[in-house]
Amino acid sequence: MPESRIGVVAIGRNEGERLARCLASARGLPLVYVDSGSRDGSVALARRAGAAVVELDPRRPFTAARARNEGLARLRALAPRLEYVQFVDGDCELAPGWVAAAAAFLDARPEVAVVCGRRRERFPERSLYNLLCDMEWDTPPGEAAATGGDALARAAAFERCGGYRAGLIAGEEPELCARLRAAGWKIWRLEAEMSVHDAAMTRFAQWWWRTLRAGHAFAEVASLCRALPGRPWRREAASAWFWGLALPLGGLALLLAACAGVPLAGPAAGLALLAYPLQLARIALRGRRSPRENWLRAAAIVLGKFPEMLGEARFLLGRLYRAPAALMEYK
User: pLDDT digit of tens for each residue in the chain (331 aa)?
Assistant: First the structure.
């Protein structure tokens, strides 16, 4: 693979040793590292690793979307004949052979704009939250609606669609992929090993905050893409409102009605509460992993509707008061 044909954009903020592994995994290709205000020596580390460094101007809000856009602009200057760009987050390490395999796939499939592979969690055994991340990454191969932060993109298609929406604090990948698909491109997921991710989540508060951020992304992306085919994340956004707010409020209203002597309100309130364990069982019994992992994933999905709903409410309040969204970090 000629170096001028493929390059790497890595982004990060205070990733430390995770960043060192990330940059080492991209050795041999033109490499740009984009830093979002790190205080841990990440910039110096990246320069020692041979990366060209972009330090984002702190006068504008930091987002992963903005970092990737500015990184690609710098990569273009370094490699004018660039065809493909591998985006990778600073807490991830690219798998050996992934870039070559993904580039070969794009060579053979000119209708595909972005390709991703299997991302794995580095330490799933260290916490339930890391394990949940590993299960989250385990998605089936084939044509996909979107990718995550690690992906090999056709640079021309990316630029023609305007790149990532720089103001999004999360959900920038599904939003871009929705625009790419609307323009006639396809998104693909391969079975090949792509990267190893280090979530470093050991506390419930981290998982709650990350899930709340996901809810914010569901609401914002669904709003932005409501006119696009497929309407990405519309279903996820509606689900959070139903399970996280409408159903518990409805159950409470029925319970109060039962206390006031309204006929059949008590049984109806019981049915509303029963919906949660039934949903838990439905998700768990449809799982593809071990029973323990299936029930854990189901519990996280059901419980996660509450922080997701709060994240959506946070987005709506921000839009109502025209307040810019602040970066939401969980580690």
Answer: 445 799 999 999 999 899 999 999 999 999 999 999 999 999 999 999 999 999 999 999 999 999 999 999 999 999 889 999 999 999 999 999 999 999 999 999 999 999 999 999 999 999 999 999 999 999 999 999 999 999 999 999 999 999 999 999 999 999 999 999 999 999 999 999 999 999 999 999 999 999 999 999 999 999 999 988 888 899 999 999 999 999 999 999 998 998 988 888 889 988 988 999 999 999 999 998 999 999 999 999 999 999 999 999 999 999 999 888 888 888 8
How far is the CA of 4 from the CAs of 54, 72, 83, 103, in angstroms? 19, 13, 8, 13
Residue matched to tokens 């989540």: 201
* Spacing of C-alpha 160 from chain mean position: 22
Nearest partner of 26 among 50, 59, 57, judged by Cα:
50
**d(C-alpha 31, C-alpha 120), whole Å:** 23
Q: Which residues pair with 87 in a beta bridge?
A: 9, 151
The pTM of this model reads 0.91
Residue 272, number of CB atoms within 10 A of its CB = 19
* DSSP run (H or E) holding 315: helix 291-320
Whole-angstrom distance, CA of residue 69 vs CA of residue 75: 10
CATH of 3-202, one of 3.40.50.620, 2.40.128.50, 3.90.550.10, 3.40.50.1580: 3.90.550.10
Q: Which residue has the tokens 């690793």?
A: 49
Q: Where are the domains of the chain?
A: 3-202, 203-331
Tokens of 1: 């693979």
Place of tokens 């323009």: 183
- What is the full DSSP assignment across 225-290? TTTSTT-TTHHHHHHHHIIIIIHHHHHHHHHHHHHTT-TTHHHHHHHHHHHHHHHHHHHHHT-SS-
